[in-house]
């Protein structure tokens, strides 16, 4: 008998469900180790919606948390804009790259190599930002994810997120939205889950008040050194209820 496969707790259930649709071990470290890979978000420039929030004063300067920070482009922008920034990513390669970028600019960011579910947060943050983390989470982890964000935000704190939009053109045609149940029936996320506007509102509207929800603006390739923008992502900003 495999004693590690006995279900005794909710954590055991989550671990079992993780294993049903598990990725290749070390995938993200391998992904970030090739810095010349042709990946749009490897550029060292912040999301256009995040720049807009800051420029319009929609997110007052304070303590911020960047979830799934990757090579650190949004965390560095927030720090340059006067925020006190914690940034977390599961990949050591991503964190090393992000730290190198920050050091080269003389920018102070606390980079943390952990799963977002290992964070111990309690009403610490004025702003939490997720650029591409949630759409790589399995649906059963989403409940834990949303609860963590709510717990980590101060009263009336703000939460921003970008995620894949269903309906955009992919390699095989329009990207369809999978139901959460389909993920387990088919044992795949197809490289990242795509969301409709209706589903995004259903996920967040109980715990958060919607401030803005729109598609990310497409940025010309010649302007990517200044700001990042691709039209196949939703962007949204929310306030903790």
| First-residue to last-residue Cα separation | 47 Å
- Number of DSSP helical runs: 8
Strand content: 15-25%
**Can you tell me the residue ranges where pLDDT is under 50 for at least 5 consecutive residues?**
none
Q: In which range does the helix fraction lie?
A: 25-40%
Overall shape: globular
Describe the sheet with the most strands: 7 strands, mixed
Q: For the residues shown, what is the average pLDDT?
A: 94
* Order of adjacent strands in the largest pleated sheet: 3-2-1-4-5-9-8
Class by helix and strand content?
alpha/beta
Topology as a string of helices (H) and strands (E): HHHEHEHEEHEEEHHEE
Q: Which value, in Å, is the CA radius of gyration?
A: 18 Å
β-strand number: 9
Please outline what is shown here.
With 241 residues, this protein is of the alpha/beta class. The chain has helices at 10-20, 27-33, 48-55, 73-80, 92-105, 139-152, 180-186, 197-204, and strands at residues 63-67, 84-89, 110-113, 125-131, 153-164, 169-170, 173-174, 208-215, 233-240.
């Amino acid at each position: 008998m495999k004693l590690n496969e006995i279900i005794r707790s909710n954590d055991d259930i989550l671990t079992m469900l993780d294993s049903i649709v598990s990725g290749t071990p070390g995938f993200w470290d391998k992904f970030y180790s090739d810095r010349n890979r042709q990946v749009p978000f490897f550029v060292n420039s912040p999301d256009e919606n995040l720049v807009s929030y800051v420029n319009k004063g929609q997110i007052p300067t304070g303590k911020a948390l960047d979830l799934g920070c990757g090579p650190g482009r949004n965390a560095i922008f927030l720090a340059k804009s006067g925020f006190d920034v914690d940034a977390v990513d599961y990949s050591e390669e991503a964190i090393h790259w992000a730290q190198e970028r920050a050091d080269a600019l003389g920018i102070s960011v606390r980079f943390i190599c952990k799963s977002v579910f290992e964070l111990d947060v309690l009403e610490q943050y004025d702003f939490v930002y997720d650029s591409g983390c949630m759409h790589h989470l399995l649906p059963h982890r989403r409940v834990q994810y949303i609860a963590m964000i709510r717990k980590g935000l101060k009263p009336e704190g703000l939460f921003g997120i970008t995620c894949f939009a269903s309906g955009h053109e992919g390699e095989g045609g329009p990207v369809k939205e999978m139901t959460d149940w389909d993920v387990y029936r088919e044992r795949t996320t197809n490289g990242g889950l795509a969301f409709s506007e209706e589903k995004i509102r259903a996920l967040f509207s109980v715990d958060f008040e919607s401030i803005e929800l729109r598609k990310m603006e497409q940025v010309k390739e010649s302007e990517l050194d200044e700001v990042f923008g691709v039209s196949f992502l939703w962007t949204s900003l929310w306030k903790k209820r």
